[in-house]
Each structure stands twice: as C-alpha cells, then as structure tokens.
Fold these 4 entries.
Entry 1:
Amino acid sequence: MPLVDLEDRQLQRALRTLFKHEEGEINNIWLMINTKVTVPTRDNVRPKRIPLRHSLHEPGTQRCLFTKNPQKKYHDMLVERKVKGIHKVLSLGKLKKMSPAEKKQLRITYGAFFVDQSILQQLRPVLGGEIYKKRCEPIPISLSSKDLQKEVLDAVRSTYMHFNRGSTYNVKIGTTALNDTQVMDNLRVSLPAILRNLYKGPGNVKTLHIQVSGKTPLPIFEAKDSEGNEENEEQKEEESSDEEDEDEE
C-alpha cells in the first residue's frame, strides 16, 4: 500500500507562512485531502473520531450537550457521575422550542457542542444549518459509555472526519491559538487514522494542503503520478526504437 510521506521542511515552511499571516487572529486550521477517485455517496455515516496531541479547545471553553428528552434525566446523570467539561445540557425538545435568535445566542455563548450520538441525525434540522456552515458541528459522544468522563475527555482531545460525496475531505487539525509545532504534532498524530478512514486508503491521496478557513491552501504533499511516469517511459522506449530503426536503414 502506498504511503504518504510528508517532508518536514515543506511542512514547516507551509506552517510558518500560514502563521505569519494570522498574527492576532484565532481561526481554524484544516487539512485538505484531495483524492484521485471520487468518494461515493455515504448517507448517515457517523463522523470518525481522530485523535490529536493538542486539543482544539482553548482553556475555559464552555461546552453544551444536546440530548434526548427528558433534559433533567441527563443533567442529573452527569452530576451523579461527576462528569466535568460539560457546562449546559439541552434536550432536543427544548431546542425545538427555541427561536432563531435564541439558537444564535447558543453559538455565541458556547465554544463547542456535544451531542448524544443516538440523535446525531435528528439534530441538524432542529439546530439549523448556520452552525454547520460555520464548521462548529456538534461532537458525537456515547452517553452509554461506562467511563463517561473519559468519553468526554477523549472527545475534547480529538477532531472528526466527516464523509461527503466528492473528491475532497476537510479535517480540522488545529487553530491559530496553537503554535506551528503543536499543529505539526497534531498533523503527524492524526494522519494515520485519517488515511485508514479514507475511501480506498492512502493510495487514493492525490494532494494534501493545509489551510486557514477562507484563505489560500498551502501544499504539503503531492502523490507521484505512477501512470504518467509509465506512459513517459513507454514513449521514450518507442522513440528510442524508432531511432534505432532509422540507423539501420
């Protein structure tokens, strides 16, 4: 299976360029994977959890958890099990009753959102598309986990790979609140898991770029076109053969 081998020098140069233009701003940093073969439609596929070395959540981040009804049941469960890291519990029923202005205030108040993975597909039409456009997708967690505190901590220390039809994946690997070394750490740690979940695996990688939201992507890897190389070799052999025939004449 072909490997994706990143060159440290090229990666460091791209990260230095990226951070040079982001001083004073905090934005998301993405790994863009362009594939050779188009990814087919995959409906209702849950995002894959991808481990990171450095969390994307800044210290003091407030987190809201979306749950099934009744809301009190899940709030009390978190209190009883002494789960830290979740600051608000909101049921699907309560969310449905909220006005657009109240939902907008949620996005302002909370820096991250969790969702009981059993209601992930139900949440989007209720929550509204704006939060997804801003790439603040709620993070799915299992509320049936025996160690719920570990489940929350693992989610905080991870990113997520979403699956859509097309030839491009985008995976959040950092923010400009981190430094370039930390983003490189995250990329190195996350890449093996990303490639394992990639349609047709590492051999389907055409190019890799890193990008700050809304900015120009910076290249960090390009696959060798083996088919193109073979065609060039065949063409050279044909030209060489033609020259030999001419010499014989």
Entry 2:
Amino acid sequence: MELRYGTIDENVKKRSVQDVILHERQRIPVSKGGLPSGVTSVPVVSGEKRAGELAVIAAVNDLAAQGIRTTEFFPTILLPAGTQEEFLRSLMKQICRTAFSMGIDVREGRTEVTDFVRRPVVIGTASGIPFFTAIREKDNKIQNCRGMDIVMAGFAGLEGTFILATEYEEELTDRFSGSLLYRIQKAETELCIAEAAERAFFAGAGPMVSLAGGGILAGLWELCKKTGCGMEVDLPLIPVLQETIEITEYFGIDPYALQSGGGLLIAARDGESLVRTLTECGLYSVRIGRLTGAKDKILRNGEEIRHLDRPGSDSLTKQCRSGK
C-alpha cells in the first residue's frame, strides 16, 4: 500500500511502527540503563537499502566518541512520495533488530511522507549513559593536546564502500569478483566503534572523533577543531582496504573523502601504547600522525606536502547525485 502525504495515519503507525517495535523487543529483550546523560541526533541520507541499520550505528558511534554508551534510540523518518508501507515496515525491522542486538531500546519516533526528500532519510536521535560511573569532566579545548599522537581505529571509507557495494551490487558483480564484494558486504560487523572508544577511554585517551560523512579528511579537520591544534599526518599510514581502493577507482571518487563510519580518530599521549591495547582486543588501529601547536593542518605523502582544506561534500553524496 502506498503511503499518503504527511504524517502516517494511526493504522499504518500501529501496523508498521508500533507492532514492529513490540514484536522485535519480545524477540530480543533489552535491559534498562540508568538516567541518560548524553544525547545526539545523526541524519542518514544514503544507503537506502540499509538506512535503518546505518542510522542506529551512526548514532551509537557519535555518542561512543563522547564517552557515552547508548541506551535508547528514537528514529525520525522522512519518506519520498510513492513509498510503499512495506518499505517502512522493513525499515523499522532493520532499526529494531540492529538496536536490540546491541542492547539498545527503540522508542516510537515521527514518520512523514513529504515532497522535500527524494530518498528515505532517517534521523537517529539517541541517548545514553557514560562508560564510567562518574566520567571525568574535561574541556578538550582547554586540555593541552599539543604533541599528542593521532591514532586511527578502523579503515577510511569503509562505510561508504559498504553502501556502494550494497546499492550497486548488480553493477559491481559484472566488474569485480564475488569474493571482493562478499568481503565488503560483510563489513557491517566492523561499522560500530563503540568497543574501540570504550577501550580507549579506559586506557586514558584524549579527545576522539567518530568518522562519518566527509571521510577521514573531515574527521581530521574536526579533531583539530575540537582540540584547538594543528596536525601533521602521513597520508600513506591512513588504513584503507584494497576493496575500497578498487571500488572507489571504479566510481572515480576519493576514498579519503568517502563516508567512513567504523573509523575512529583518537588523540593519545602514547599512541603506540594505545595501538597495542586496541590490537590486544582484536581492534585494528595505527598511529597516523600527531597534533601540533601550530594552526597548519599538514598532510604528508612522502616528500609531497599539502595543507588540509575545509572539507567539502562527501564523495558518496556526489555519487548519489550523479549516478555512474
């Protein structure tokens, strides 16, 4: 059944939102956390086939980088004209199954059909409690971060590659081996950085940035802004999967500006020690540079040096607009 314009009616809400939440909550019981002390809202406008799953993960990652463990998720869903009710029901199942499997409860949000969007948009609002019983308060700009190492956990462009491999599966199957696509489509298990963030907090790490839209370049810019520092980063040290390199080359897009959910930037006094800690937990990480007292944001590639510009549009956004 095609959904009508405006806020969905009560019958649709009951069938495709409320009943789905109740059914999935019974399948995967969720325990209640303490009083929430952190809130975030993250929009997901790409990855239509997995938008519900990606919205939950994006919100969880954003809170985790702030030292917050997510306990509740509230989805706001905007759908283009012509959307079928079955799509909404499937989207809600994705949201519920992803959230409940992570011990996160789902609350009923708002759903509308509107002419103002061409693709489904899920705005994930999440709340949670600190990793620590009494997390230490710290102002990351006042804290002296100069000289800290920059550690990256995860891989640049991973989420964007996952979305491309999912959305353009039929096209890519004609170009790449099944094993390459299978590897990247299974990367959904690597998109959540909550464990890496929690381990880093317990190891005494400094400010963190959860990578998302704009990729690793946008994340580095945000880390410098958050700490009030400049940076020197070795571009070849930034971890990128071979699958990401091949798929981005095919589409002609920049892997370093590609949506990078599943990646985490961490400022640390002893980067190598933090890398060892994360590696012992089975989490891939590497030291890619350091924060400096200058304002320059320097990217080194061998003898070549360039300055990081203010990030532009995400490579995935450009791809979705233009098509192949």
Entry 3:
Amino acid sequence: AGCTALMQALSAGHAEIAAKILDTGVSADFVDCAGRSALFHAVLGAQVDGLNVIISRGGRVNMLDHEDRSPLYQGCLMGEPALVTCLLNAKADPNLAGRASAMRAPPALREDGEEDGEEGESGARACLQEARTCLQVCAALAHNDLLLSMLEHKAEVNAAPGALGWTAIHLCAAVGNDVGAASLLSGGASLDLEDMEGNTARMLAERANQAEVLARLLQA
C-alpha cells in the first residue's frame, strides 16, 4: 500500500519506465507505508538496471524501512550478489543495524541438540531475527560469498546488536555454517565473546550438535 508508480515500475523490474517517471521530476525519496523508498523497491525487483537508474538519480542507499532493513540488508537477505555489489559500489553501509527487538528466548533444541518441527522453524526464525546487520544475515543464511564481500567492505565482525547478543560467528555456530565461520575467523572474529546468557560460539555449536563447526572452532 502507498506505492507510487515509480515504486511499482522498479518492483516489476521496468528500468526504462522508471527512468521516464523520474524524468518528470518525481522525487526518488518518497517512501511507502512500510517506509520503503523507490530504491528499496528496486532491490525487491531484483534488477540491477533499475537499481542503477534510481541510484544515478540520487536515491539514498542507506535508508532503513520500518522493519529496520536497509536496501543492502535486503539484497543480502535475498542472496543477490549483483545487487549487493551495486549497492556497495554506491557506498552502502554494511554496518547499519536496526534497533534490537524485544528479548527472546534462544532457539529451542531437543536433548540431542537437533531442532525439530515447529520448534525448529521457530529456532530458524529466531536466528534470522537476531541477524540485525548485513554480515549477520549472510552468516545465518550461509550466503558466504556475500559474507566475504561484507568483510572486504569493513563490516564489523564482532557486532552483536540483537536481543540475544549473538555475533556473526555465534550465528554460524547455531546454524552449522562451517564455511562462514572459517571466513569470520580469518576476518578477526572473537571466540571469547559471550551472548546475553553467557554462551560463546563454541558453546552454541556444541549445544546445537554442529560437529563440523565445533571442530573448527576448537582448533582456532
């Protein structure tokens, strides 16, 4: 709701139509009822041409919507390397993070460490909700090429702005992202940091029965 013709064109991937609308003098900075600008809609449209059009007309890359997501965060969430590269080239900030949401319990695990059924889905959602920065969402979803891009663009490797106090390597430990954990360790991730309940990344990996990640963390 509240989408302008420009937003609709960009969401649909119609870069040429978007350019013509902008030529009429329409502002690139109007937002819809969700706080999403035309540039954010260009990311949702998953078309680099449309994104380039709105960036070239002054669209701001570092605006947060009402869910505290930046366009770069959305691109990382979608796992779209071309969009992420375009945004980073336009000086998108990988360290933007929204406010932490209300306190939540850690993901529920069975006694054997495995997530199960609705509890497993709830745990996965909790991990994603805890992922407040671009680096964290890449870690949680194992978008590891994008994770490397975030590190190359000075993402804060030990940032933990979420309610549980998990860093990106805590998230890798919880979801079993061994490749991501290796990259984070190379990027200077600390294994000594504790979350709000005193858990280190090693402790989370053990609790979640993530054997490969745990082995890597124990060797680090």
Entry 4:
Amino acid sequence: MGFFSSCSRALLFIFNFIFWLSGAAILGVGIWILVDPQLKDYMKLIKDGTQDEEFLKTSAYILIGFGSFVFLVGFCGCCGAIRGSKCLLGFYIFFLVVVFAGELAAGIYVAVFKNDIDSKLKTGLVDSIKKNYEGDMQTTWDLVQKELKCCGGDSYLDYQNSTWSHKQSSDVKIPESCCELVNGVDRNKTLCMEATAGYFYTKGCREALLDWVNSHSAILIGVGCGIAGLEIIGLICAICFCRHACPPSGEHVQAS
C-alpha cells in the first residue's frame, strides 16, 4: 500500500503540475488575443462582415477566466497530493469535472460559430467592401489583403460599383493592397490595379479568413483533446489516491 500511495502521489503531482502549466498557457492565449495587432485586424474584419460586435473580446475574456480557473484547480490538486488531504482532493475532483464540462461547452460553441460565420461572411464581407472600404476599415482591409494574400470578399469583382470605385479613375478596378508581390515588391502596380490577370491575388478574403480560422481551430482542438485526456487521467489518479492513500477522516498522516 505504501508503494501504491507513493506512486499515486507522484503521478498526481506530475499531472497537476502539467495541468497548472496548461492553465497558464490558456491565460496567456487570452491575453495574446487582446493585445496582438494582427489578430485584431482579422477579427475587426470578421466583426464588420458578421455584425458580431464583441466576439473577440468575449472570447479573450472567457479564455482568461478559464485559464485562471484551470491554474487554480491545478494548484489545488498539487496541494492535495502533497498533503494527502481528502477535502482538497474532493474539491479538486469536483472542479476538474466542472472544467471538463466547460471545455465541452466551449467546443460546441466553437463548432456552432464556425458554421455560423461562413453564412454571415458570404454577404457581410461583400457589403463591407461596397459600403465601408474607407477610413479605418480601408486600412484594415488593406492589411488583411496583404497578410492573407487575398482580394475582395468573394473575389476582386466585389470592388465594382463600390463607394471606393466611384472615387477612382475608370482604369482602376482594385486597390493596391490586392497586388501580388514578388520579393516584397509589386511586379507592375498599374497592370495590377487595372485587374490584369496574373498581377493580383485571385483568392477571396472570405475563403482566406475561413482557412485561417480552420487552421487555428485545428490547433486549439488538438490542444483541447490533449488537455481533456490529461484531465481524465488526473481524475482517475485523484479518485484512486483518495480511496487508497488518504487517511480516514479524523486520522493524521503518520510521519515515515
């Protein structure tokens, strides 16, 4: 029983140390979303296209809150393993189940959002080009088109009959930010802005944004599955440790 107790305690402590680090990582991702300027540009464009006012900030605050909670749960588990306290481990098991349920709810939310965003972006980004390609939104569009190597909402044709196009000469069909770069330089800006084939990005920004969301979602889903697996292992270790290693109520852990 002593050997089993020592192994359970060590495994539980190692697991919770990793879990504690994962909480710190989730907290860091939430802060990163709030401060990263490139991410803000992408989400500003998604916001303008979907009219989803606070998705970015809400997601960041959820991650910060969830990461802080996981951080504290991991700390509680470490203390419970070291002290052999059934009370601490009982709270730890309960909160671990809460964390698991929260991750499941977050996964469903992300899946629903991914399906919903595609339908909204189909018309939202085109309307944004037609009506809002000016001022701050023009700067955002230009940055996104350069970063994602795309042009327009569905295609470069979205610039036709837009508010922006009415202010340009008849030869100018698309903005400079749509121009394809070679070693960071426009091959021919004039031919590009006249929408000459081969000189500008043909991929629409809706497709490019969805590709970006899907690639990052795949990473988050993989990390989430890994953390969920650790949680299940930790839950089993904590229950076994409580049953076999912790002293009965009213007794104290004897010094070896």
